[in-house]
Amino acid sequence: MTVKDWLASNDGQCITCDVDSQTEALSHPYRLYRFLTDLEDILDRISEDYWRLEAIRPLVRRLLTSSSWLQIPTLEPNPETGWEVLTLYDEPFFPLTIQLVAWAPGMTSPIHNHGCWGLVALLSGEEKNTFWQRSPTPEFSDHIEPVGECLLTPGDILCLMSDAIHHVEAIGNEPTISFNLYGETNYNQRFEFDPEQGTAKNF
């Protein structure tokens, strides 16, 4: 199966990235605690979000390849809400959050940015990401318009810059499960958008 990596830029462009095809012969799995230590080293060494994501992508690919527990379905969408989140790591005063996220088929997220860099690796199902771009008008300062989309299938990785605007839709007949990694959120810069009203609100 061919896997793909993408980067969603701050202006909504979805850029194809080179997939790190190098696979190490590991005598033991790449444990989550080692992954976290490697992430901390990257955060200490690299301050610019784009280059952080470039350094983190190969680590996530290694985690997907060598950690069999990520391939075992452990999360089901809540039947009432259509989605569910399982937090794997969230330490106070440390700028990293790691989650498993499940969406029921047909569910669509609000249009939003994250106010931080982020990375989504799809574990199962199919997820369509639609990307939006700010396009203010004299009447609506928060007007946005769609500029592209990409389809994630299992093994694909999507990196998100802090102001990348998107919404996700679980397509197909089975739930999606993704491994999500986020930096420190700037809540003053995190918005949910309404393209019909041309508005944005903090959330």
In short:
The protein is of the alpha+beta class.
Q: Counting H and I runs of at least 4 residues, what is the number of helices?
A: 2
* Radius of gyration, in angstroms, nearest whole number: 17 Å
Strands of the biggest beta sheet: in what spatial order? Answer: 2-1-9-6-11-4-3
Please give the CATH architecture.
Sandwich
Number of strands: 13
Strand content: 35-45%
Structure overview:
The chain is of the alpha+beta class and 203 residues long. It has a single domain, classed as Jelly Rolls, CATH 2.60.120. Helix content is 16%, strand content 37%. It is built from two helices and 13 strands, in the order ββααβββββββββββ. It has helices at 32-45, 49-66, and strands at 5-8, 14-17, 83-90, 97-103, 111-112, 118-124, 126-134, 144-152, 157-160, 165-171, 176-182, 191-194, 199-202. Strands 2-1-9-6-11-4-3 form a seven-stranded mixed β-sheet, with helices on one face. The protein has a three-stranded antiparallel β-sheet with strand order 5-12-13, with no helix packed on it. The longest helix has 18 residues, at 49-66. The protein is globular, with a radius of gyration of 17 Å. The termini are far apart.
